[in-house]
Each structure stands twice: as structure tokens, then as C-alpha cells.
Amino acid sequence: MSEAPVAEAALGGRREATKAANRAAILAAAGDVFRDIGFGAASVRDIVRATDLATGTFYNYFPDKESVLRALLDEITVTARARVRAGRAQAATVEEFVSGGFRAYFEFLADDPATLALTRRNAGTIRMMFGEPTLGAGTEELRVDLEAAIASGALPPHDSELMASAMVGAGVEVGLKMVERDPPDVDGATVFVTSVFLGAFDRLR
Fold first, then answer.
1. Distance between terminal CA atoms of the chain?
2. Domain check: are 113 and 49 in the same one?
3. Residues near 93 by beta carbon (within 8 Å), at least 6 away in sequence
4. CA-CA distances (angstroms) from residue 21 to 35, 76, 108, 117?
């Protein structure tokens, strides 16, 4: 291999590393700003000021502050969805199936200080963004798990699409209320929503 392609590859690698570092710096700064003063009060200038980057560099990665919040929520949601699904996968009973997912989600919100602070400060904005594709993907994953539980006989037949929407919606709303309390009551929130949906499944039998 000639030296030119090697040099070009090295240069390309450095460029990609720089891009990744710049994007990460913007996201980290935005997270701090949104936690400190809230999404509504924050501006792109506030975010840029919290980095070593120029304003023009920000716009190479994001068109506005809303897109930055979406990217932050996407990262949070991917992790939350994995933990929630793992919580359901360990279930041996209907109660564990219901409570496992809710508890995993509520613990995720409460256990990470950065996520807790971001959610507390921006609950209204996050609620409005709930329909975003990444945020809504957890609903489809739950629907698939409900269908599998129906097929195995663990759950009674029901409209899994409606049930998944109801369970995820309740989880999000109760989670947002939970994080407003100090300290967040994970056990209380889990028991509450679990009892609601266990009652629903009992009525379906």
C-alpha cells in the first residue's frame, strides 16, 4: 500500500474522531445547561458558551436546541429500553412481568443523578416529545413481549397494542411525577402501577 492512502486514512480517522468529540461536547454541555436552567430558558448560545467550540461548529451538528434535546433523550431512552426489557425477561409470573419492567424504568430514572436532574427540570418538554420514534419504540417492544406472553398462556388474550400504549403511557406519567418528589419513591410507584395493570389482566381472564 502506498503512503498516500495510508495518510488519507489516518486523516479521515482523525476527522471522524474530531466530529465525535465535538458532538459529545455539545451534548454534554447541553445536558448541563438543560439541567441548570431548563430547556425553555436555554439558548443555543448558552450551550455553545459551555463548550470550547464556535457557534458555527454547533450548527454543523444540530440545527437548533430542540434537536440536541432529542439526541440526549434518544441516548437515555436506548439505555432505559434495554433495562426495561431485561426486567420483563426475568419474570416468572404475571406480577413479575408487570412489575419488572416498571421497576427497571423507575430505578433507571432515580438511580442516575444526571438523568434524574434532566427529567425533573424538563418534565413538560419531555412529555410533549413522547411521540418521537425512539421514545415510542419501547411501546412496540412491549407489544411484542405481550404477544409472546399471550401465546405462552401467561397472559389472557387482549388487544396488545392498546395495552402496550396504556402501560407505557402510565409508566412515563408516573415516572415524571415520581422524579418530582425528593427522594423518588421507586417502590411506591412500582406497586401502584403494578396493581393497576394486574387488576386489568384479572378482569380480562
1. 69
2. no
3. none
4. 21, 19, 26, 24
CA distance 78 to 113: 17
Residue 173 buriedness (CB in 10 A; 0-12 / 13-18 / 19+): middle
CA distance 117 to 110: 9
CA 198 to chain centre: 25
Residues 101 and 113: their CA atoms lie apart, in Å, by 20
The answer, as to whether pTM is greater than 0.85, is: no
Asked whether residue 153 falls in the same domain as residue 116, the answer is yes
Picking from 133, 135, 131, 161, the residue whose alpha carbon sits closest to that of residue 146 is 161
Task: Specify the CATH number for the domain of residue 103.
Answer: 1.10.357.10
State pLDDT tens for residues 153-176: 999 999 999 999 999 999 989 998
